[in-house]
Specification:
Layout: H1 2-15, E1 18-22, H2 25-35, E2 39-43, H3 58-66, E3 69-71, H4 76-88, E4 93-94, H5 118-131, H6 142-159, H7 164-188, E5 196-200, H8 206-211, E6 214-218, H9 228-240, E7 245-248, H10 255-264, E8 267-270, H11 278-289
Parallel strand pairs: 1-2, 1-3, 3-4, 5-6, 5-7, 7-8
Length: 293
């Protein structure tokens, strides 16, 4: 009888799922790639929602109360909610998925900076050095995804050591997928000149640009649509830089992007960095930038 009870407990441990909460869909994809059938993942920010201002629904707060692990990722809404999540579930672990990732500054608009004198530019750079907001969109870089995958793997084997081999197999398979994604993007960019520019409404592709030697040109000014004079500067810059397409997101207005596109007779492409299919999403972005799409 004791053996049967022990066996029953052991089976429950092996087949028990770890309840995990993440902030955005790409994180869910990464956790599920490694955790597989051993995890249940709840995502806070749903498709089409703005991660800067998101407010969790009651059903999501219920998931928080049952979770063992939360992986924050330095998004703005977390500043207002992580303490409330802690109150909701005092036993839930908060694990930094961004550990060991070098954060870069959130890119500000630069339109019209050519008219500034050098002193003003140096002053601005000095100011940014001390007060610059960090860019949270780390998952747009395959190199960063590898680091996040290692952080997820380490967390899962620590919390569920009995299934370590299962997680290790999934982790190695996921690393292969990341490498293949990176190779495909680099192939698409083979004939692209260094420092090629692409225009975005919200500057959420900074890590992607850094990884592949590109420059993103943001349209928004401090999170808002640019005023008419600034918009004309942007149109002039887009002409000068021979921009072929403008990328907008479902989560933000594309009014100014459409105005620019109409003036220059170019495409507006909706490309969100928050897509669950992270690999296909990055490849589609690369195809559009390299004019293979």
């Amino acid at each position: 009888m004791k053996f049967i009870f022990t066996l029953f407990v052991l089976i429950n441990i092996i087949y028990a799922k770890t309840n995990i909460v993440v902030s955005i869909l790409p994180q869910q994809t990464f956790v599920e790639k490694i955790g597989g059938e051993k995890v249940t993942v709840t995502t806070m920010v749903k498709p089409g929602s703005d991660p800067h201002t998101y407010e969790p629904k009651p059903s999501q707060m219920k998931a928080i109360s049952k979770a063992q692990i939360y992986f924050p990722i330095n998004l703005e809404f977390e500043n207002n909610w992580l303490n409330k999540f802690k109150e909701q579930n005092k036993n839930m672990q908060f694990v930094d998925m961004t550990k060991n990732i070098e954060l870069i500054p959130m890119q500000k608009h630069s339109h019209g900076e050519k008219d500034h004198n050098m002193e003003a530019l140096n002053e601005e750079k000095h100011e940014h050095h001390h007060h610059e907001e960090k860019d949270p969109h780390i998952w747009t870089s395959p190199s960063n995804v590898k680091i996040m995958a290692k952080n997820i793997y380490d967390t899962l084997i620590k919390n569920d050591p009995i299934n370590q081999e299962y997680y290790k197999t999934n982790y190695m398979n996921f690393l292969d997928e990341i490498n293949k994604t990176d190779k495909q993007i680099r192939t698409l960019f083979l004939n692209l000149p260094a420092n090629s520019k692409f225009m975005v409404f919200h500057p959420s592709w900074g890590y992607f640009a850094k990884e592949y030697g590109l420059i993103q040109l943001p349209i928004e000014v401090e999170g808002k649509e640019p005023k008419p004079k600034m918009l004309q500067n942007i149109i002039n810059e887009a002409k000068e830089e021979k921009v072929k397409a403008i990328f907008t997101q479902l989560e933000f207005s594309d009014k100014s992007a459409k105005t620019i596109a109409e003036q220059l007779n170019i495409k507006v492409l909706k490309q969100t960095p928050l897509a669950a299919n992270w690999s296909e999403n990055l490849i589609q972005m690369a195809e559009a930038i390299s004019n293979h799409k």
